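Tip: read the tokens left to right.
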């Protein structure tokens, strides 16, 4: 987003916008802080109403896929865009985005750990790998939805996430779901 576009959207001149902020970096950092609040309100807070463990993790992930569209951000996820734009740029905006992403991924990691504690995911699960794969699903969903305009992006992301959950399920749960799927095929 350019400062001119932002100034126009808030009904100010560029100089008026700069009266509130000392630099473009400060504007971008404030926008990232605002984004974090929107993510909390659209993704994490509603998920906390779900029962602990896997239901809560699934609710958070379901809310996360496409959150920016649901929140009315026509440009997509600012964090996903920023990760590619700032990947080789050092400075306070990249540092802020890095911190926010670490916090978000940390919250998803805690949800996965809670699911393990509830017995919904296997105890020997490599949680860091699980979160890494979840992040990959999210970024692919974002690119498929925004760039490729794939109408199947939501369904594919949900299917990929369910595959991740199935691989992370305790062995007993895999056996019982395998029995159910076998009985459905008969």
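Filled-in amino acids:
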């Amino acid at each position: 987003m350019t400062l001119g576009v932002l100034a126009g959207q808030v009904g100010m001149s560029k100089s008026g916008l700069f009266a509130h902020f000392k630099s473009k970096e400060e504007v971008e950092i404030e926008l990232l802080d605002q984004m974090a609040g929107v993510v909390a309100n659209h993704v994490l807070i509603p998920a906390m109403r779900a029962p602990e463990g896997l239901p809560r993790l699934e609710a958070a992930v379901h809310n996360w896929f496409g959150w920016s569209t649901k929140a009315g951000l026509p440009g997509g996820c600012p964090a996903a865009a920023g990760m590619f734009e700032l990947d080789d740029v050092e400075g306070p905006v990249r540092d802020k985005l890095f911190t926010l992403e670490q916090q978000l991924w940390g919250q998803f990691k805690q949800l996965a750990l809670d699911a393990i504690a509830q017995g919904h995911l296997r105890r020997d699960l490599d949680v860091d790998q699980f979160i890494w794969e979840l992040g990959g699903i999210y970024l692919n969903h974002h690119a498929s939805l925004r760039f490729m305009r794939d109408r199947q992006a939501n369904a594919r992301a949900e299917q990929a996430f369910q595959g991740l959950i199935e691989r992370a399920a305790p062995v007993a749960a895999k056996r019982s779901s395998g029995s159910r799927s076998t009985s459905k095929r008969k």
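The chain has ten helices and no strands. The first helix runs from residue 3 to 9.
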